[in-house]
Amino acid sequence: MICESENKLNPKFESLKIKGRCSLQGRIKISGAKNSALVLLAASLLTKDTVYLTNVPDLSDIRKMKNILKSIGVKIKDNDKEKVLINSENLHFGNIAHNSVNELRASFFCIGPLLSMLGKASLALPGGCNIGKRPIEEHLKGLKQLGATIEEKDGFVNARINSNKRRLKGTHIKLGCPSVGATETLIMAAVLAEGQTIISNAAREPEIQDLCEMLNKMGAKITRAGTSKVYIEGVNYLNGCSHEVIPDRIEAGTFLIAAAATLSCITVSPVIPSHLKSLLQKLKESGSDISIRDDAISIKTKTIKGVNIETAPFPGFPTDLQAPFTALMLKATGKSIIKETIFENRMNHIELLNKMGASIKLENNIATVSGVKKLYGRHLKGSDLRSTAAIVIAALMADNPSLVEGLEHLDRGYEDFEFKFKKLGANLKRGLTENISDISYNQDFFINDVQNSYAA
Ligand code: EPZ
Question: What is the dotted CATH code of the domain comprising 11-31+248-453?
Fold first, then answer.
């Protein structure tokens, strides 16, 4: 029996032990896109028939979304994790509670389908997260324009359709900002509305195009998806369908950046190259050789030159790759300026990268990176999904081993993350470590400890 007091003194945390000076080679399979699968699961509520999704990534966010759908009567069959059968014929009204929505913001996407199918919906207000306040006023404003009555009370959003037809009414919605989530929520609300809906200043992300492709397979009438002005002709009902989730452009981009950062040569597939245009442009600018063949992208890097990036809505440089790309710039020749324009607090990795010996000045979401010769392994804890990925990349570049905590963030968005890196030749080991960051320890002790553990 473990002594309770001992347990309290040394709580154990899952962490990745990462050997530095890594070189990667070979080919890895890219999983289905997290940010597409999440919204496609929500869209499956829009029919009483069965929807068959394939290439669904097995991630903690996806598992959370499935549990939320099951809590409101949806039947889900997913013996093979990648292949998911969803049937909503027994969909019933239910509060999607705080812990569900706070744990998974994407669950708020369900408000559109629930309104259309049940005439009412009640979801907890999604709070902010580590990267920003994440407001939803564009979602709510658009739903009101479609004829929903929205009440915010006791931390819940209660939406209902008051018209006796229990049907939303198409209209022209002008978004205040090209919000991905608001565009998706409003498309899903409009597909069963009466008449035409136009969404102007719509987000153009590939995940939105994937959503519209699936909805049209179900009988929706959506045109100009992927442009900033989307047209939706409301229909009376939608049928079931089979749909394959698009490859995850952010996972693919993360691995391409890791290969460049470790002066390696790898291939990632399947990918849709046009989804990664802005990243590939910046990787070439910084000195990587990129070759594209059908649904595969290969990268080979011998030198890294500092380049500037500024995040922007698609097709601009994706905010989800800003942190990983910052890691690439740490040992680049010359300076690089990294500007985050989408989220107000998405630079949590900067302080941690500086602890590893990087030279980054941060002011008003603009990071100025001066390339250094060496990075040092450290015991670090990531605070959000993409920042933690950036720290892993820096750890692969470092001269000595690192210990990276915060794997609960990585497991949200990267399927088999360390397995894929190991397949490319990296030396990573997931294990339990005492929370030594709470007690004073010297770097030598720590580094020996991590190095010894490789000896084992
Ligand atoms: C989606 O989040 C993605 N998540 C995010 O991926 C991604 O970073 C983001 O789009 C931008 O591309 C999913 O698809 C599940 P937004 P979303 O609404 O929809 C402001 C990851 O790492 N805004 O486009 O929440 C907002 O504050 C995650 O995989 C308003 O001001 O993003 C933010 O500054 C992180 N009012 C900006 O727009 C609103 O009503 C972009 O937000 C809505 C948004």
Answer: 3.65.10.10
